[in-house]
C-alpha cells in the first residue's frame, strides 16, 4: 500500500511539474487555476500566450507521455510474467523493430496516403504484423514454446534491422533525418489528435490486462502445475501477446522507439513488492507513466533550448541502472537460473 500511494503521489507531482516547467515556464499556481477553470471548479483562465502554451503544447505532450509510459510499463510487466523471464520486454517479440520498419519504409518511400498520419499508421500496422509473423513462426504442433518464441523474435528483429538499414541506405538527406529522429524516440510532435489516436488502444489494453493477473500468477508455478489448476496456457499466451502488441505498437507508432521502460520498471517493482501480478500490472503502468513523464521533462529542460532525444535519454539512464540490477541480483542469488 505505501508503494501504491508513493506511485500515485509521484505521478501527480511529476505531471503538474511537467505541465509547469519548460521553455516557457508557467507558475504551478497558474496551471492549477487554469485546470480548475476548464473543469468548472473555479480558478481563472490565463492570458492568451500561457493559456495557449499550456493547453495546445504542454498538456498534449504530458498526457501522451502518461499514455505511452503506461502502455510500455504494462506491456513489459505482461511480457515478463507470461515468459517467466525478468529480462523479457516488448521488443523481444519484434513489435518495436517491426514498427520501426513501417515508419522507415513510409518515410523512405515517400508514402502519404493518409497525410500526416501515414508514418504513424504504417508503424502501428507493421508492428502488429511483425508480432503475428513471430507468433505464427514459433508455433509447432499447436504449441508455442517460450524459447522458440524468443529465438524467433531475435531472428525477426535482426531481419527488421536489415530492412531499416536498406531504407536508410537508399534515403536522401531529408528522409535520413526523419528516420533517425523517429528511431531516437520523441514526444515533441505531441498533439491532441495524437493523444486521441493512442487513447483507445492504451485504455483497452490497460483495462484488459488485470483480467489475466491470477492466471499469470498460476503460470509462475510452471506450465504443468498451471494446466492442472485449470489454466489454458496457450490461450493465455496468445491473449497476452496480442495485448502486448496492441499496447506497444500504439505507443511506438506515436512516440518512436523508446527502450528500457518496459524492461526496467516491472523489474524494479517486482524486486520491491514481490511477484504478484494483481499489484504488478497496474503498478507497472503507473511506474512506466511516471518514468516517461520525468524523462520527457528532463529531455526538454536539461539542455534548453535544445531538446534531447527521449529514447536516447531513457537508454542512457536505463542501461547502467539495469546493469547494476543484474550485478546485484547475481551477487545475491548466484544467477538467474
Topology (SSEs and partners):
Blueprint: H1 2-20, H2 28-38, H3 48-83, H4 95-108, H5 118-138, E1 139-140, E2 143-144, H6 146-170, H7 173-184, H8 192-208, H9 213-219, H10 223-228, H11 233-255, H12 261-273, H13 277-301, H14 310-333
Antiparallel strand pairs: 1-2
Helix pairs in contact: 1-3, 1-13, 3-8, 3-11, 3-12, 3-13, 4-5, 4-6, 4-7, 4-11, 5-6, 5-11, 8-11, 12-13, 12-14
Question: Can you describe what's shown?
Answer:
Helices cover 75% and strands 1% of the residues. With 337 residues, the protein is mainly alpha-helical. It has a two-stranded antiparallel sheet. It is globular. InterPro entries: ABC_BtuC-like, ABC_transptr_permease_BtuC. It comes from Streptomyces pactum. This is Iron ABC transporter permease.
Please give a quick description of this structure.
The protein has 337 residues and is mostly helical. Helix content is 75%, strand content 1%.
Strand composition percent: under 5%
- Tally the helices: what do you get? 14
Global structural class: mainly alpha
Name the poorly predicted regions: none
Question: Which range best describes the helical content: under 10%, 10-25%, 25-40%, 40-55%, 55-70% or over 70%?
Answer: over 70%
Distance between the termini: 30 Å
Keywords:
Iron ABC transporter permease; 14 helices; globular; ABC_transptr_permease_BtuC; two-stranded antiparallel sheet; 1% strand; ABC_BtuC-like; single chain; transmembrane helix; 337 residues
